[in-house]
């Protein structure tokens, strides 16, 4: 149930609607837009007569939301969500780029990567310290030491940072060092982790699972938001299909689909989306052209020696070229970069 309040609704009128929703068994989520306050009533009750709310003072309109996700639905915030992190706004007019190695490997590597990322004009340094690897024998990440050296490198170069949290027990560490928490494809339906991430105050980026539908991705966001953390963004990183020419099939159409169904910012990941360094640039352009609010890409000072995902990782020259080209695409669709 969504109740949109009139532009001039008083706080007392808003409170009266909230109290009524609570009496009927709803949990109320409040979104304050530029013009209207929207009250999202989430609960098991579906057969309430919406006329009851439409008749209340200060109410503009009332909708029963038929989609299984409510808070992630575009109705909840028709104007769109802007996730603010430091001085960066994700979901606003400016395209945001997150870039860096797949994994933090050493102080020298992450320092050099941060320099390349900042020089290219990206705003956020990416890098995993806890790595979800298909094989237990592959490099598993540097853990807290990796987070510590990544934070220092990001700070030296005026960058924000994003890093993956694989398990709820790692949340305190990630919260200590990282500006944005990444929930990876393999954990998109780790409902316990999603709920715990909903209780923290830092933004969360959820990557689409390799076999997840857009609706399941939006329900993952709903888990986080239902616990009170509305600073959520989503990421298309490719899904598994019958195609083997690329590591994954980057579902570019998921970008406009999510933007239509939801108010949450959408990020494109052409690195995992293709698995191939030579395909990253065209798919980065495609993601921006399709309306992505940002990109997350893998770049390494020496990708052939990367400890993970080297084949899909750009070298410094390719990264600079990608930044120049996505800026041109952004400008062509009336977006700043
Ligand atoms: C990553 O960003 O390096 C990563 C492991 O991504 P995904 O969860 O999309 O595989
Ligand atoms: Mn990777």
Using only CA atoms, what is the Rg? Answer: 21 Å
Kindly provide the name of the CATH class of the largest domain.
Alpha Beta
- CATH homologous superfamily caption of the largest domain: Aldolase class I
What is the N-to-C order of secondary-structure elements (H for helix, E for strand)? Answer: EHEEHEEEEHEHEHEHEHEHEHHEH
What compounds sit in this structure?
A: phosphoenolpyruvate, manganese (II) ion
CATH topology of the largest domain: TIM Barrel
Tell me the strand order in the biggest sheet: 7-8-9-10-11-12-13-14
Question: Which architecture of the largest domain would the CATH scheme give at its second level?
Answer: Alpha-Beta Barrel
Which structural class best describes the helix and strand composition? Answer: alpha/beta
Number of strands: 14
Mean pLDDT: 96
Uncertain ranges: none
């Amino acid at each position: 149930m969504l109740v949109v309040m009139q532009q001039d609704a008083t706080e007392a009128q808003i409170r009266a609607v909230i109290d009524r929703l609570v009496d009927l068994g709803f949990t109320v989520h409040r979104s304050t837009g530029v013009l209207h306050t929207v009250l999202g009533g989430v609960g098991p009750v579906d057969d309430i007569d919406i006329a009851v709310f439409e008749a209340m003072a200060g109410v503009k309109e009332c909708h029963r939301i038929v989609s299984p996700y409510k808070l992630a639905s575009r109705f909840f915030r028709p104007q769109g969500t802007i996730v603010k992190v430091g001085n960066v706004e994700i979901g606003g007019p400016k395209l945001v780029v997150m870039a860096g190695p797949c994994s933090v490997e050493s102080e020298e590597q992450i320092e050099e990567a941060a320099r390349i990322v900042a020089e290219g004009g990206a705003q956020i340094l990416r890098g995993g310290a806890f790595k979800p690897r298909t094989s237990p024998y592959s490099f598993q990440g540097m853990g807290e030491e990796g987070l510590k050296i990544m934070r220092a490198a990001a700070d030296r170069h005026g960058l924000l940072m994003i890093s993956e949290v694989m398990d709820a027990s790692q949340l305190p560490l990630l919260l200590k060092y990282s500006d944005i928490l990444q929930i990876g494809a393999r954990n998109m339906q780790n409902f316990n982790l999603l709920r715990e991430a909903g209780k923290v105050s830092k933004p969360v980026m959820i990557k689409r699972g390799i076999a997840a539908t857009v609706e399941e991705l939006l329900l993952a966001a709903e888990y986080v938001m239902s616990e009170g953390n509305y600073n959520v963004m989503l990421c298309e990183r490719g899904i598994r299909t019958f195609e083997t020419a690329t590591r994954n099939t980057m579902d570019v159409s998921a970008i406009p689909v999510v933007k239509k169904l939801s108010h949450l910012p959408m990020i494109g990941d052409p690195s995992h989306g293709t698995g191939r360094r030579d395909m990253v640039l065209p798919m980065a352009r495609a993601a921006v052209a399709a309306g992505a609010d940002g990109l997350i890409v893998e770049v390494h000072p020496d990708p052939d020696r990367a400890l993970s995902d080297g084949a899909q990782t750009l070298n410094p020259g390719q990264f600079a070229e990608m930044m120049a080209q996505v800026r041109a695409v952004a400008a062509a669709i009336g977006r700043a970069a």
